[in-house]
Fold this sequence. Notes:
Number of helices: 9
Number of domains: 2
Strand order of the largest sheet: 2-1-4-5-6-7
CATH superfamily of the largest domain: RecF/RecN/SMC, N-terminal domain
Distance between the termini: 21 Å
CATH class of the largest domain: Mainly Alpha
Shape: globular
Strand content: 15-25%
Amino acid sequence: MQLAATGFRNLEPLALSVPAEGVALLGPNGHGKTNVLEAAYYPVLFRSFRSAADAEMVGFGGPGFKVECRYADQGVTHNVAVRYTASPKRKRITVDEADIERLADAVGLWLAVAFIPTDTSLASGPAAGRRLYLDRLLSLADREYLRALTRYRAALAQRNAALKQHSSTLAAFEPALIEHGAAVVRRRLEWLQETAGLFAEEFRAMGETARVEVRYLGRDSLAEPGAWPEALAEARSRDEARGTTTVGPHRDDLVLELDGRPLRTYGSTGQHRSATVALKLLEWDTLARWRNTEPALLLDDVFAELDTRRQDCLAERLRRQPRAQVLLSAPRRNELPDGLDLPMWHVETGTVRADG
């Protein structure tokens, strides 16, 4: 992977050729390590993995930024580039030098899986973050899921607007809600059935000994369109009172359990981080298998807050991921486990230089 960026946060102009195995980015906090990883992830979804607005990623006083990623997919080299101007606000995306009009046509052409420290909320936080994880993963893995999710959300927004206005047009939006909502639930359940055991394996690979399970919290029956009319009818008075739809996959959750108890409330900080890393590796595996490609792994300060045993287990797990190009960050070399054989690059005041 080759990464180029100009005007992006505090980074000096970048033109990096990342080794096939990846690289470890070292340097003081606040000097730009995370910004390099953020630039590498930006061409996946064309937005920040830190939920920052595009304007916040423009270098101080600059007119905009450009990020460009050149990568090989099944032996063919491609180029994805995005140019953002702050005034007027405009984003231009090109793939192999051709302009892309619809964002959905470019999302996920370049694939990477990112971990940042705040991602531990996947294990410790509310359901919304896990739904977002699930929807992002499946949208990148399966274009049909992305289409169903987009159409479901549009029908949901229309139905909710009708509920708030006490409109008689409420029922007009339900056929689309049912069709696409059922497709969303069905694909989520299929994915979970396929990968639940793998999540437990990844959790154990982090050195964890407790029994962990992942399950879907929602109405499994809604995977079939025929179950929706009765469910919507039962919830009609509640929906009208609240002005919002209370039935459907937008309300569901991915529940993580530790020895039969909620991981969210009973897990330790280390277990939360182990579970989050396991979810990220599960995401990598899903994308690799469903898309027949090899996503990059972008890991920001992933070894922090892990004890030595968990650090060593994660390092060993990454060594057993030979196809993944791993880009990770740490403040200092001695904060990385022994045996993690990656080239070292240093980041200081926005400048990246290779070791030696």
